[in-house]
Each structure stands twice: as C-alpha cells, then as structure tokens.
Write a structure and sequence with these properties.
four-stranded antiparallel beta sheet, 3 domains
Length: 276
C-alpha cells in the first residue's frame, strides 16, 4: 500500500469516528464505536488497514477490552476514595498544570493552521502535476485453504469442482474453517484485498490470473504448504479522481505552508520575547 492510500485510509477512518453507536456499557457508562475508533487511530497512527485483515478484528476486540478494563478500574478507584486522596490530588494538579500549557499550545497551532487557505486552483495544479501519486495498483480479494500435502489439496478441489456461484463460495468457507491450517481459517480463509507483490511469488502469480468466482483446479505450492484459492473479487488499476483526493492534497499543502508560517511566527515572537 502506497503512502497516499495510507493517508486516504486515515482520512476515511477519521470521518467514520462520527459514529456514536454504543458497543457496551460498564456500570452504566457507555463505550461507543467512537471511543474504540479513537483508540485505534492513536495506536496505529491512522494505519489500521496495514494490519492483516485476519488480525484487525482481534485488534479491535483487544482495544474494546482495554477500554472496559479502564472503566472497571476507574469505577473502583472512585468507590474506594482514590479521587479524594492527597496523593491523587497532588498528581492531578501537576498533570493539570502540564496539560494547561500543552492544550494552549495545541489550540494555538490549530488556530494558526486553520488560518492557512489553499486555493482550488493550487489543489488542481498539484493533482495534475502529480497524478502518479494517486495511482492504485490492481488488487484482488481472495480466500485460501492451506494444507500440508498435495493429496489433501486435491481432495478439497474435488469437492469444490462441481460447484459454482454462491454454493461454491459457501462450501469453500466451510472447508477453510474445517481443514485450513492457516491463520485465516476461522474467517473462512479470507485474506481481504491485496495488490501484486504482497503475497509469495507462486501464490501471487496464480491468484492474479484467476477469474472472479472461481477456484484453483490444481494445488498451489509455496514454502508454507499447498493452497487452494478462491477469488472473491477483482479491482483493476485506477487513478483516483481529483474529488477523491482533494482533502488529502489540501492537508498536505496546508502542512507544507504551515511549516513556513510557523517559523516566521516563531521568529517574530522570539524577537519580542524577553530571554535572559
């Protein structure tokens, strides 16, 4: 995944944070999808989609469990009088003093950034001069069943060969959960979308030559064992349209301009400051 895709993914994930769906309540306190997404954004620095698809759900559950744990501990701390203890009040005041300064700096920087405007012409000029940045490689959405021997793979293929359409997919998922030794087995062998070069050569070569909705009729051998592959979807290489990447371009150009404006502002303030 290229840098543009990563940043666009981060922007899309940020927009989804508006969801206030309650996932669980802990002693009457709601933990929402927004709370989980905020933690995920912080933990992955906006790169959640770089985590393998079969691990994303596990990661989300871990984050939710951590938030539940924090609420349980905080609730017990309140009940046990921690919030009224001298130690808590001393540490709270120290933290408050530090955060007061940090928050003021953050708001100051945000206000400075917000004052920077980029014209639509500048945005379009950047897009037209840098279109190669917005190229998306061809990608596929595949499932696989990984077994140790060629004979095992051939037996699975024999079960799948007479099927097609929804029945083929359903049977493949069933067999993946039952027979696959790969980490994606619990999810029916789902590998999500990936582009060329992300998988080992033999797997990569075969899967990108397949037609949507089909299964490999011969086992694919790699260093991990023998694979039976089902191609769920296929996306051609595309160049993202201007409207799709406009927000990303604006953010990039604003940040570039911000560095210059910030330096000028700091030079101006330093001249006025009394530094002994």
């Amino acid at each position: 995944m290229n840098k543009v895709t990563m940043l666009l993914t981060a922007l899309l994930l940020t927009s989804s944070i508006a969801s206030a769906k309650t996932l669980v309540t802990v002693n009457g306190k709601a933990i929402t999808q927004k709370d989980v997404n905020t933690e995920l954004m912080s933990a992955t620095q906006g790169r959640l989609n770089q985590i393998p698809a079969d691990k994303q759900e596990t990661f989300k559950k871990q984050v939710l469990q951590q938030l539940i744990g924090k609420e349980i501990i905080y609730d017990d701390a309140k009940k046990s009088g921690i919030l009224n203890s001298p130690e808590y009040k001393t540490e709270y005041n120290k933290l408050l003093k530090r955060m007061k300064k940090e928050l003021a700096i953050q708001v100051w920087q945000k206000k400075l950034l917000g004052s920077i405007k980029i014209s639509n012409k500048a945005l379009k000029d950047y897009y037209n001069k840098n279109k190669e940045e917005f190229n998306e490689k061809a990608s596929v959405h595949a499932r696989h069943i990984l077994v140790k021997t060629k004979a095992e793979a051939q037996k699975i293929i024999a079960e799948l060969k007479p099927l097609s359409g929804a029945k083929l997919k359903a049977k493949f998922i069933e067999l993946a959960k039952k027979d696959s030794t790969g980490p994606s087995a619990p999810k029916g062998g789902d590998l999500g979308f990936f582009s060329k070069g992300q998988m080992v050569p033999a797997f990569n070569k075969r899967v990108f030559s397949m037609k949507k909705g089909t299964v490999t009729l011969t086992p694919v051998k790699t260093q991990f064992g023998y694979h039976v592959i089902y191609l769920e979807d296929k996306k051609p290489a595309v160049t993202r349209k201007f409207d799709e990447v406009k927000a990303f371009i604006e953010q990039r150009l604003k940040m570039e301009k911000f560095k210059k404006v910030f330096k000028e502002k700091m030079d101006e303030l330093q001249k006025k400051a009394i530094i002994k």
